[in-house]
Structures are given as structure tokens and as C-alpha cells.
Amino acid sequence: MKESVKSKTVVVSVIFLFIALAVAPGINVNVVNASSDNDLVEFTTEACGIPGLKPQTVKLTKQQASDVEELFDEIKNNLDNATTKEETVAIFDHAVVDLDEYGLLGGLSVEEAQRLVKRSYQNPQAMNLYNTMYGNCKIFNGSNFLCLIAGETKVTRFYSVVETGCSVLCYFLFGMYIVAHIFVDDPVVFYNIISRLQAISNLYHTVNSVRIIGTGGIAFGSSHYSELPPPYRYNPAVGWITTQGVIGKKSWNGSFYGGILGLVTFDSSSYSYYIGATGFLGIKVNMYDGSLFFLGSAFRVKISPENTLLP
Amino acid sequence: MAVGIILLFIGTSIIPTLAQKIKKSSLPTSKGHWSYVGGNGPGNYTRIQDAIDNSSDRDTIFVFNGTYNENIVIDKAIKLLGDNKNNTIIDGSSGNESIIIIKANEVYIGGFTVRNSSPFYRGIFFRPNCNGVSIIDNIIKNSRGAILLQSSHNTNISRNIIIDNYNNCDIDLINSSDNTICRNVVIHTSGVYPVSISLSANSCNNKIIGNTINKSFYGISVAFSSNYNKIYANSIRNCEWYGIDLYGASYNDVNSNSISDNKWGVFVVWHSDHNNINSNTISNNIYGIRTEETSNSTNNTFYHNNLFNNTINAYVNDGSINNWDNGYPSGGNYWDDYPGMDSFWGENQDINGSDGVGDFSMQIPGGQNQDRYPLIEPYGMTRLSFIPHGGLGISGNIKNVGNTTAFRICWEVTFNGGFVLLGRDTLRLIPKPLVPGEEFTVKSKTILGFGKVTLTMMLWADNAPVIVVKHNGTLLFFFLFIK
Questions:
Q1: What is the pLDDT of residues B47-57, one digit of tens each?
Q2: B16 at the A interface (CB within 8 A)?
């Protein structure tokens, strides 16, 4: 009997030993991952369309950052598979809840964010009007109106109404330069006046930083002006965009430019972006790799696979 | 109990494996089904698209010689093989799309002429995220750009002839990384600012190797945060503007290219930093190398380039200061307009004797840059020899037995076997370059030990291949006897 107990004890010990041997490497793998999670990754998030709200910075572990990326992919896949407006709305609502888990709602509550991202979309009178006007129009293949919009893209900038106005002013003044060059014999005085006006227009950067007016749009892809040939170099936005609106469901994937007539200028007049969405209200998330994720609604979206607006 | 222990052994070996993420290879094999297009065989398809529609992943579609007027969409991991690239023609002129649209991973296309896209579309168009695709040994012509990759990785585009395309980039990588663009011939690209090979929008870690580019607007353009690319051994001629253009691109390696008869040879511009431009032959351009609007950094490095017959060999049109040599004894660049002599050697060029390096620096026009160690002769490969002797340690003469100066010569001796207490490994740098025929006596550090040993000697230079020599010997305290 004593021998039997001893034998059983040995067997049980051997079993435990093997289990320990088997499990230990698995535990070690997790330990390595956990130790590398100490580095934090910064995300900047902002609620666009709520006056006075400032961008917020959220620090996540690398594991959480990876989870956020997976979340964005999941949102894309869900939107790709959605066939009705109701499904799209449900995905947006759910996405807001998921973003809230990582603190990526720009300081809004879940309910506030859900209202914000669907605000333009929930105007039935406007929807009906635009549907009557444009709903069956085939020339709007690359467009959508009054739509829910989500995407994750690079080479993308958000702009405010102030920037739009100042960009228009810059282009107007550039036109004046050309007119002066052609028609005025001694344009020095004329140039001086325009230069001062242009300096004033550059104040828009300061104005923009105040963020009094949050509603603006999204510009996709850029052009860089250079005095050397070629005069313009084009850098497309890269990523995906999905919309659901008056024209139905419209998606873009790969590389593209904003297609709405007009450029928005940042930083200097030699550096412009192509407007692709106007009247954007919603959440945007700046990712550490330069990508921008956005979820919201827009008045109008127009995307072109090639740069059709020069420069 | 025995069975239990065996099962536990199996469990022990499996569980650690399960704990790690395994990346499965998805390379296509030749195990799939073969189908045929054209020819006279029973059951052969007449349209390539029909064969694709009826295929599955890993199938092979063989297309016999003929002209196929269709635009095709490949949405499976198949091999599409043409009978002969000159006579198996896919003509897209009747369609309103790109000639070939790729929508799947692991596609292989080889042996076709792909020609005549409709005016606004490319020859071969990758939908985003198509990875592991191979485009090999085709002719792509008369299209508005030959190949566009978007967010596609691990692609191999090799040995294609790309000719007479217009108004766009011939091989256009947008946000695409880890691709190989190798030994293609890209000629006569025309229209509005066309580029033969373009990397843009974060296209990183690509290899652009051994391509021949003739007559374009730009040869190779690397732009907009396209970093860590390797651009090796390409021949770029007759470009209307730039041979190689780095625009907002950093950490790229531009090495051993032949860049001639362009307006500007190498153009580094707009926040392009930490690029390494070395061992290129840059000739017969108006500007050999020109920098503009770099971000005032000191981190682009130009060395071992041969600059000759350019109207202006190099010009710096901004305030940036870059490195125009690789230090001593590695040296700088060869300038055919360098006016100096070679009577001294050393880091300060103040020791009597020649070293293949000019005695004073070469000023780069347009700024404050200088090549401190300009080469007296064109940079090229040479050969070294080393015959070791035993005695108190190892000694011997290293000799340059080639025809050009050898720069930054290193040698290393390692002992294996025996009982070596001191000096098991010696790694040394010869303090000066060796001109052809010149010898330099070297000696290892003190060796102490005993027993039979194997000596492994390695010798190399910036421009000489590695020589590895093994000798057997006997070590007796401080003395080494080499057999």
C-alpha cells in the first residue's frame, strides 16, 4: 500500500512537472509582450463642430493602440458589409461606444457623440430635397450629399471655415499679382499693397488656433508648388472612405484626392490640399503614424481617384 | 503511466508552439489546375477573362499566342502565363478601364504584351492591399502609365520592357513597401512630367535594382516620406530633368547607379535628410548633384561618386551643409575639375607620400560645403593581397594589386583551436589608402597560448572584395609557426 502511494505521488509529481514545463514558455511569451507595452502611444482626438472644444491627447499602450487599429479595421469591414442606411447608423452608434472605451470621443459623452456624428444626416427635409435634386443623377458617381462619412486616410487635413475664407483670399490676391504683372507698367506700388493684404490674410493661422468655428471640412491629397519643374508635385491621400447619404452608399479605397472645386492652404501658400468633404461634423482621431480616422457626417463629399483639379 | 508520460511529452512540445504567432506562408504552388486560352486544344477558352472566372486559387492559366482584345480583372491567386511576350498580346483599346486590374494576393503575370489602355487608365492597376504579386517578363506599352501599386507590398516587378507610355508614372508605387523593382527596361515615357519609377506617399523599404531608364522627365523619383529604399545599379540616361530625385524622402540608399545625359543627375530637395548617395557614376549632366530646400541638416552623405563631364559637378542652392566625404581613409568623391595634387597623406594631408586623395579640399559651389578628401582618380574596384608570416604574432604585407587606389582597408585575424590566452582576435584599420602597387606592413597584437591552431584571415576595403584565407599553425607561447 505504501509502495502504491509512493508510486502515485511520483506519477502526480511528474505530471505537474510536465504541465509546468509546457505552460512556462507560453507564460514567457506574454511576459515579453507585457514588458514591451510600457511605451505609450499618443492619439489626438477632437470633436469637430462643437465650438470651444479643444483637441485632447490620449496616451495608450502599444497593445491598446493595436486594438484601436483593429477597431478601425473592424468598422471598415462592418461598413463594407452594410447594405442599408439603418445598418450604417447602427454601426456608427456602436463605433462611438467602442471609441469611448479608449477615450477617443474628444471630450464628449457617448450620447453627445452619437448625436454629433449623425447630425447632418438626420435632417429629413434636406435629405428629401437633395434626393429629389441629385438622387438619380449619374454624374455624381464620385460624390455624396448629406451623408454619414467614416474613413482612415493619410495626407489628410481638416480645415475650418476661417481657413477656407483665407484660402480664397490668398488665391484672389495671387490672381491680382498676375493681373498686375500683365496690365500695370510699374506695378511696384501695387505689389506693395497686395503684399500687405496677403500678410493680413496669413493671420488665419492664428485665428484658426483659437478654434472659434469648428465646422469646416476635410481635404484629401496635397500639391506642393515649387519654382523648379515640375511646378506642382502631387501627393494623394491614401486609405479608405465610406459614405452613406443621398446618393446611397459610396466608398473609396486606395489613393485619391478631394474633388470639390477649391484648394485649402496650410502653413504656406506653396502647400495646398484638395477639399473632399464640406460641413463635417463628428469625431476625428490623429494617429501616431500620420493617419487620420474620422467618423461623422458631411454636407457634401466628392472624391477623385486622380488629381483632376490643377494645380 | 507510460502512455501518460508520452502524451505529456507531446503536449510539452506542442503548447509552446501554440503560444507563438505563426506566420503561414501563402506562396502559390504549382499544384492547382491548368487551363488554356487560345490554341486549338479541346476545351480551350477563347477569352482570358472566362478562364479566370472559372479558375480557383493556385490555378495556372496558359495563354497561347494571339491578340486578346479584352480588359481583365484578376480576383484570384492565379498564375497567368503567356506563350511568348512578343506575340501574346492583351489589347485594352476596346475597353474603358485599365487593361489588367489585380484584386487578389499572390497573382503571377508573365509572358505578355499589355498594350493600349484607354486614355485615362493604367496598363496594370493594383487595387489596394494586393500583396505578393509578381509581374515578370512582360512588355507594357502605349498606356497612361504602365503599373500602379496602391498600398500593396512584397510585389516583384522584374524584367519587364515598359515602352512608349505617356502622361503618368510608368512604375508608380503609392504607399507601397517591401517591393522589388528589378531589371526592368523603361524607355521613352512622354507627356506631362512623366516619371519612369515613382515612389511616393510612404513607400518604404523598396528595392529598385538594375533597371535601365532612358528618355523620361524624371528617371526615379522618391517622394513624400518614402524612406529606407535601396536604389542600386540602375542606368538612367536622357531624362529631360532629373535622373534621381529625392523630394521629402529620407534614409534612402542611392548606390552604384550610372546617371548620365540628364539635365540634373541627382536632385535632393525639400526636407530630404539622412540619404546616402555613394559610388555612383554621374556624368554629362548639366548639374551632376544639386540640393535645394533641404532642411538645413548635415545628414545627407555623398561620397565615392565619380563626377565628370557635367557642366557643374555639384551645386548647393540652399544653406544646408551635408557630408561630401566619408572621412579618412575612406575618402570623398572624384571630381574631374579638382585642381589639386596628391603629394601628402593622412587625415590632415600633412605626411609626405601619396594616397589617392587630393592634398586640399574641394569646395562645392553655392554654399559652405566641401569635400575634404577628393579622390585623384575615379573610384572603382580594386584587389588586395596579404601573405602572412609567423614569429612573434602575425605579420605580413598587404598589397594593392589592382589598378585603383584602395580606400579604408581593414584586416582581421582569428584563431580557432589550441589554447589561446591573448590575441585570439585582431581587427585593424590601415591608416591610409593604398595606391596601386603600394604595400603596407601590418602586425597583429601579442599572441600567447599553445597548441595547434587554425588562423582565419580576412581582408577587405571599401572598394575591394573580401579575401578570406585559412592557415594551420602551431602556437608555442608567444611564437606562431605557420605551415
A1: 999 999 999 99
A2: yes
